[in-house]
Amino acid sequence: MATILLTGASRGIGAAARTLLEQSGHTVIGQSTAGADGLIAADFAQPRAADALWAAALEQAGGRIDVLVNNAGVFEAAPIDDADGFAATWARSHAINLQSAADLCRHAVLHFQANGGGRIINVASRAGHRGDSPQHWHYAAAKGGMLAMTKSIARGYAAQNILAFAITPGFTMTGMAEEYLASRGGDKLLADIPLGRVAMPEEVAEMIRWLASDAPASMTGATLDINGASYVR
User: Which of 149, 11, 166 has its CA nearest to residue 73?
Assistant: First the structure.
């Protein structure tokens, strides 16, 4: 069984993944901003927070982490008619949605190089492929960057048994998505999903579990969509 560092573990996809991974026998070291319920506190809006998280997680793990799951993220509106707000939201989105994941991937690659390999799973978004709303350019840009980063890691380190995968959910039934659906007209958005519903957190959690333990090594670099056929490639 693996020791897994999971970010954004307090709610939504992260909470479902934490439960499923633990039920599957894995040891999960989780992160949240507040750090309640046995999770390590790390505010990714703050510089170098990911560095401190990695150090704390590695100590808690007894010196060996097998899998990194970058799941933490924020989805906040950035209207283009507010210059200061636009810049601040872009900076915050980059820090939380991409930079923290990049910092943790850097630590993971170095650690895996010294320990015979490991797996990285980056939870990106459908938005990284098809874009997002006029108020969420930053989110699509960050998730697109996460996809490119995943591919770069997979290509660069596969020979060292360092595997990297990405998951791109569409709308998932979390608090963040529920608020967005309500603000944008849920019925209209659901009409764009052939399956007729948004994904459940447990469905994405199952993909995380499979990639963490069962996915074949030759899949490294792959992106797995889970969006009810609302975006097909």
Answer: 11
**139 has catalytic annotation:** yes
Determine the Cα–Cα distance for residues 35 and 116; give it in Å rounded to an integer.
30
Res. 150 pLDDT band, cuts 50 70 90: very high
10 near 30, Cβ under 8 Å?
yes
| Active-site hit among 139, 157, 180, 231 | 139
pLDDT tens per residue, range 178-192: 665 665 556 667 778
